[in-house]
Amino acid sequence: MSSISIIMSPFFVLLILSLLSLSSSTSLDFKSTYIVHINHQRKPDIYSTHYEWYTATLSSLSTFDYDPNPLLYTYTTAYSGFAASLTSQQVDELLKSDSVIDIYQDTVYQLHTTRTPEFLGLQTHSGLPKGLVNETLNKRLHDIIIGVLDTGVWPESKSFDDTGMPDIPKRWHGECESGKDFASSLCNKKLIGARSFFKGSYMAMRKKNDKGSEIVNNSPRDTEGHGTHTASTAAGSHVANASFYGYASGIARGMAPQARVASYKVCWEEGCFSSDILAGMERAIEDGVDVLSLSIGGLSDHYFRDAIAIGAFAATKRGIFVSCSAGNSGPEPKSLSNVAPWITTVGAGTLDRDFPAYGVLGNKNRITGVSLYSGKGIGSEPVGLVYNKGVKSNQSSSMCTPGSLDPKLVRGKVVVCDRGVNARVEKGLVVKKAGGVGMILANTAQNGEESIADRHVLPAMAVGEIVGDKIREYVGSDPNPTVVLSFGGTVLDVKPAPVVAAFSSRGPNNLTPQILKPDVIGPGVNILAGWTGVVGPSTLPTDTGKSPFNIVSGTSMSCPHISGLAALIKAAHPKWSPSAIKSALMTTAYTLDNTNTTLHESSVGAISTPWAHGAGHVDPQKALSPGLIYDTSANDYITFLCSLNYSLEQIQMIAQNPNVNCSRKFSDPGQLNYPSFSILFGSKNRVVRYTRTVTNVGDGNSVYNVIVDGPSAVSITVKPSKLVFGKVHEKKRYTVTFVSKKGDAIKDAFGSISWINSQHQVRSPVAFTWSE
C-alpha cells in the first residue's frame, strides 16, 4: 500500500525464506502493534529506502523471534516512522536506539455514530446556494476530491452514480484496489478511489483469537454501512425517489454532489486502529484529496499521541481541510474528541423534519414520540402496557436488557423500556423475543427530551423524559394500563430547529481549554443517506431487511455535512487555506433557531452554550462570503504547540520537521489566531489580553465596527473599535482585554465579539471560565 519500493539485501531475502517455514504463533500471543517514531534524518546511507532501514532494524534485534512480517506500515507523510508487531522486550531494545524518539502502543478509535440541503439553503443540483451557481464554479466543484476515512464504501449505491461527471482530475494519484468481493472496475468518475488498511486491526484480532485472516475482509467494501452513509452525505450524487421504507422520501444527495469521493477503509470489526488510520491518512494526502472527513474519535490525548491529530496536521500544512466528529458522549461536559485547533470539530443538531408516532393511554392522555417502524401495527384496540416487571438475574427489566423480561408478564403487551445500557434497537428485539407486541422507549434524565427515530423489529416509539415520566406514572397508578400505538410518517417544517442533540459531545476542551471546541454544529439527527447491501438498517443480526438508504444519527453524520460544505467553499475560493475555510464556517454560523429563539439543547431543553454548539449552526450561504477571516498558518500552529509543555522532539513529531524550534512561542495558547475565544480566569489572573488578526475577503473598501456582548461579571475592551480596510486581502489587528470583576463568584459565562458592517456580521463566540 506504500508507494515506496521494497529493496532487500540478499541476506535478508534468505532470512525471510528460512523464516517462512517456521511457526510464529507462539510469539504472536505476546505481541502487540506499536507505532515507532523515528528520526528520519538518521537513516544510514547503506539503505536506499526507509522501508529497507526499518526492516533491517527489526531483523537485527537480539529478541527477533522469526516473525516473517513484523513491519506493518512505513510512514513518511503523515508521520515519521513505522508500525510493527512487537513484544515488550523488542520495544525496550528499540528504545535504546538513537534513531528512535518514542514508541506508542496502537490505539483503538471508535466510529461516532435528503432534507439537509434544503434545510441549509442549498440548490438542488449544484449544491451551491441560490445566486452563486455559474459554469466556473461547477467546473471547480468537479475538481474537488473528498477523502472519507471510515468503514469503506458500497460502490453499487446510486449515490455514487457518475452520470454527467467529466474525466477524473489528472492530478489524482489514487487507486481503486481490488479485494474480496470488490473489483477495481467498481470505481468510476464519481467514486474515484477505494483503498483498505487493515494490518493493525488484523494483528489485534489475531492476537485475540488467532482468526484474523478469517475475520478481516481485506477489501474496501463497506459491510457495516457507516462509511457509505458518511461518504454519500458529503458528496453523494442525486438519487430520485429515495426513502427509508417510505420515510423521508424525496431526492437524496450529498452536500457537494458534483465533487469526487475517495474511500479509505480504516475501521473494522474491532474498531479503528491508529496504525491503520495513519496509513489511510498518509495515502489520502499522497493521493491528492482536498478535504479529509473522519467520523472517528477516541478520548482526547496529547496531540503527539493522537494519530488523527498528527495526520491532520500533515494534511493541513499541505492545504487539506480536515473535518472530524466531536463525539457522541454528550451531554457530559469535557467529552470531546478531535480537539486539535487545526481540525474542524463538528457537533450535531436536529433538522426541521421528524417522524412522529402517537400513543393514546388508557386514561385518554395522548402522547407523541418518534419512530421509523414500517411494518404492520398492533391495531386500533387498546393493548396492555407493562413497565418494570419481572426482574431476573439482577437485571432490571426497565432497561429491557437481554434475558431481563419475564415472558409470562409481557406476552401480548406493549413494554415500556428505559433508554440506556444497551442499544435502542436491541431493546425492541428483547421485547419481541419475550412475547411483547410493542415497545415505548422512554428517555431518562441523561437524554432529556432528545428523541431519535429507529426502525425497530416491532411496533415501537421513542419519547422524551417528560412524556416518559407521565407514562411511568400512569402505569404505576392504573391497575390495568393500556395503550394504542399509531405512526405518522414524515413531517416537515418542525419547530424549533435546529436543537443541539443530547448525544453531541460537549466542551470545555479538556486538553487545551484556551481553545473553544466544538467549532460548529451541523445536521446530525435522523439523517437519510446511502447504505450497504450487506446488513439490515438496524444492524441487528436478525434484521434481514435491506434498504439502499438508512436514517442514522450521530456526530458521524454531522461531520460529513461540514466536509461537503468545505468542498463548496474550496471550489468558490480555491486559494483559501483550511483555516480560512473553517473561519468562514464559524464566524457566519447562527445561534437562533427557526422560531428566532436562542438555540436550545435537547438533553434538558435549556438554552445551549458554545460548549455545546461552538460558534453555532453552519450557514453555507453566508460562509461563502464571510467578509473577514481569521487565517492561521502551520507555523502559527507550531507556535501554539511551543506554548504547551511539550518537549521539542514531541513538537517536531507533530510538525513532521526535525528542524522546528521554539524560538517563537505564545505566552498563552489562547493567543492563537482562532475565530473564537476561551478565557480562563483564576485567583491570580483576573486580566486576559488576546490579539487577533483578520483578513479582508469582502469589498476592497469596507469599514467594520465592533459589537461586544458579555456577562456583567466581565469587562471587555476592544482596541481599535473600528477596522478600516482599503483593499482586498488587507490584514488588520485588534486586541481584546478581558477583566474579571472582583466580587463576582461564578463558574462560567458566555458572550461574543462581532465585527459588523452593512453586508457582514463576523461573529466570534467567547467562553469564560473561573477556577478557584
TrEMBL record:
Region: Disordered, residue numbers: 209-232
Residues making up the signal peptide according to the UniProt record: 1-25
UniProt key word Signal: yes
Domain Inhibitor I9: 33-112
Residues forming the catalytic site: 150, 226, 556
Pfam families, sorted: fn3_6 (PF17766), Inhibitor_I9 (PF05922), PA (PF02225), Peptidase_S8 (PF00082)
A single BP term in Gene Ontology: proteolysis
Secreted keyword on record: yes
Gene Ontology molecular function: serine-type endopeptidase activity
Domain PA: from-to ranges: 396-471
Peptidase S8/S53 domain segment(s): 143-594
One GO CC term, this protein: apoplast
Keyword tags: Apoplast, Glycoprotein, Hydrolase, Protease, Secreted, Serine protease, Signal, Zymogen
Cellular location(s): Secreted, Extracellular space, Apoplast
Database matches in InterPro entries: PA_domain, Peptidase_S8/S53_dom, Peptidase_S8/S53_dom_sf, Peptidase_S8_Ser-AS, Peptidase_S8_subtilisin-rel, Peptidases_S8_3, S8pro/Inhibitor_I9, S8pro/Inhibitor_I9_sf
Domain Subtilisin-like protease fibronectin type-III stretches: 671-767
PANTHER family named among the record's database cross-references: PROPROTEIN CONVERTASE SUBTILISIN/KEXIN
Similarity annotation: Belongs to the peptidase S8 family.
Function field: Required for arbuscular mycorrhiza (AM) development during AM symbiosis with AM fungi (e.g. Glomeromycota intraradices).
Protein name: Subtilisin-like protease
